[in-house]
């Protein structure tokens, strides 16, 4: 059996950001930002609106680039490398984001299996020059089962509920058997029960070796498997480390700029604003 390309990268960090500054429009949104996330380190990135979460996500997915550093060294490495073909990176790092969901559900005739298969070609839908093999179809079906979405085959993406479409996007990200999944607000728009079911399916992926990078506003979504938490505020890294040490009243109050009380129930955390 051929080695998965990611085997070659086993010992490197998943993300290594070293003194990165990022402009959006005419604003410096991240200023001299540093963060390392180890390979296999399930991580939650938490912050209020405007804290810089999406900017960080786009930096990782290569939709945004850091300003060049004065000393010529790379400010950003993913799986140990600072240069990637985006399609190659997608094979190692699956992405589920609101913008991807919007693109897929906005396409009136895009069918579920096609949405999954098209990721083999880093495309949104299949084109005439895309040659789908039997092995690809088999893998797409496996990924749909893994994401709990096989019952949706034959449906159009535009006809799915938010939670159903989210599952298909997970399957789409999984076709490459990525080492890590970057999930940007994956529970947005899900009702209470769908959210719990969805989080359970993410736990299953985490237990089977997919590293989760979960970007969220909600402390309740931090799964028991996630031990590493990153708190952002105003484009700065406020704190990061083991979740028991980071998820404190003081740190969360700083993150959200309000007096927050944190509660732990079993393996989950929740928070409410005091007063
Ligand atoms: N194109 C842009 N031009 C100027 N400023 C921008 C641009 N995009 C984002 N920003 C600013 O960058 C900061 C960080 O935005 P970002 O979208 O990364 O935050 P976020 O944590 O993802 O927020 P939310 O939770 O609301 O999605 C915000 O102050 C935002 O106004």
UniProtKB/TrEMBL annotation:
**So which domain of life are we looking at?**
Bacteria
Which keywords does this Swiss-Prot/TrEMBL entry list? ATP-binding, Nucleotide-binding, Transport
- Keyword Zinc-finger found: no
On whether Transport is a keyword of this UniProt record, the answer is yes
The molecular function GO annotations come to:
ATP binding; ATP hydrolysis activity; ATPase-coupled transmembrane transporter activity
Q: Where is the ABC transporter domain?
A: 15-259
Residues annotated as transmembrane:
none
Q: Name one Pfam family in it.
A: ABC_tran
Q: Which GO terms describe its cellular component?
A: ATP-binding cassette (ABC) transporter complex
Q: Which PANTHER family match?
A: ABC TRANSPORTER ATP-BINDING PROTEIN MODF (PTHR43553:SF3), HEAVY METAL TRANSPORTER (PTHR43553)
Q: What is this protein called?
A: ATP-binding cassette domain-containing protein
The organism is: Dyella solisilvae
Organism taxonomic ancestry: Bacteria, Pseudomonadati, Pseudomonadota, Gammaproteobacteria, Lysobacterales
């Amino acid at each position: 059996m051929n080695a998965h390309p990611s085997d070659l990268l086993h010992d490197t960090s998943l993300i290594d950001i070293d003194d990165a500054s990022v402009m959006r429009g005419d604003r410096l949104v991240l200023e001299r930002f540093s963060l390392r996330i180890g390979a296999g380190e399930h991580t939650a990135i938490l912050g209020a609106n405007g804290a810089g979460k999406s900017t960080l996500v786009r930096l990782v997915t290569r939709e945004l680039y850091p300003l060049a550093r004065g000393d010529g060294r790379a400010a950003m490495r993913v799986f140990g490398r600072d240069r990637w073909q985006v399609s190659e990176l997608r094979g190692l790092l699956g992405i589920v984001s609101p913008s991807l969901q919007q693109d897929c559900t906005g396409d009136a005739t895009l069918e579920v299996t096609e949405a999954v298969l098209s990721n083999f070609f880093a495309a949104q839908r299949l084109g005439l020059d895309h040659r789908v093999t039997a092995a690809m179809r088999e893998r797409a079906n496996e990924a749909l089962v893994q994401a709990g979405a096989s019952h949706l085959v034959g449906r159009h993406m535009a006809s799915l509920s938010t939670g159903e479409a989210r599952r298909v996007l997970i399957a789409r990200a999984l076709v490459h058997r990525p080492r890590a999944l970057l999930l940007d607000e994956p529970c947005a728009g899900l009702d209470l029960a769908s959210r719990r079911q969805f989080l359970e399916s993410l736990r299953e992926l985490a237990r089977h070796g997919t590293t989760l990078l979960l970007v969220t506003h909600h402390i309740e979504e931090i799964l028991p498997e996630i031990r590493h938490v990153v708190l952002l505020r105003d484009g700065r890294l406020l704190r990061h480390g083991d979740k028991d040490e980071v998820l404190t009243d003081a740190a969360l109050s700083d993150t959200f700029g309000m007096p927050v009380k944190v509660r732990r129930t079993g393996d989950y955390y929740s928070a409410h604003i005091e007063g």
